[in-house]
Amino acid sequence: MAGNNLKILVVGGAGYIGSHMVKRLHELGCQVVILDDLSNGYRDAVVAGEFVEGSIADTALLTDLFTAHAFDAVMHFASFIQVGESVIEPMKYYVNNLVGTLNLLNSMKNAGVTRFVFSSTAAIFGEPDYVPIDEVHPKNPVNPYGKTKLMVESALEDFDTAYGLKSICLRYFNAAGADPEGRLGERHNPETHLIPLVLQVASGRRSKISVFGRDYDTPDGTCIRDYIHINDLCEAHWLALQVLLKGGGAQAYNLGNGKGFSVQDVIETAKKVTGKPISVTYAEKRNGDPARLVADSSLARSKLGWLPKYASLESIIEHAWQWEQHICDGVEQAHKN
Fold first, then answer.
1. Model pTM?
2. Active site members
């Protein structure tokens, strides 16, 4: 389906997921405006659209943006996402993830923009009572990151009732992989996600990978997580936007493969894809790491018509490895210069 000249504001569009979404929207024929303060994003990751450097904390800037543009919808990827940091620096998370989002929603309300796709998280569920986790699973976040996301979800329900601001919340489990064309990929600083960390060992940028716990109640003793390809995430956002354009909204969907892969699965698949040795050290379990986190995405499949294209762990790691090699080439070139 073509973008039909839709104008979309992508907040956090220079980050990992946001930059892939900007690329996809541009390919679909949308006009895209990107707002990002570059605290976690990269200017060179914005491959299309009009870029505005700034923060959702800046209410005057938001007012100017919504005055200058007649947006058809807003997509929000500008949250801070590190669970551990959120425990140590909760103020940072409440100010950006909650207050910043409320600033954004208030600007939308004032401008009469009524369609909002929100990047939420599996962290709203906390320790799982059962897996796979569906949308009715109890929500009991155990860290400020998950709490701020759940607070926004609650606010969105109220904003729908009071202001007619229609939203769809997409709860990611583990976003992974990279643009298959090799133009974009995962660049967190510091990197905390398993797949890029493992591939950094394969490429020689890191000496070893630490595996926390090997006696979980899983087939190989390591944690099981649900990895979803970044492009499949972007497709879910596009399908959610189509629902909003048709008058739907006020819904939340869990997004994942529906299949879990263990830490050991990731390491063995990475060895196979890269053909490189990967040094592993084993450490104690971390507090709060559930044995299994797997999504039940059947509601997204039935209501959004969403079907992951890159469901295999091998394809996710192949694309991530292509990006890791691209980064290594850039580092090597920089040293030569």
1. 0.95
2. 145
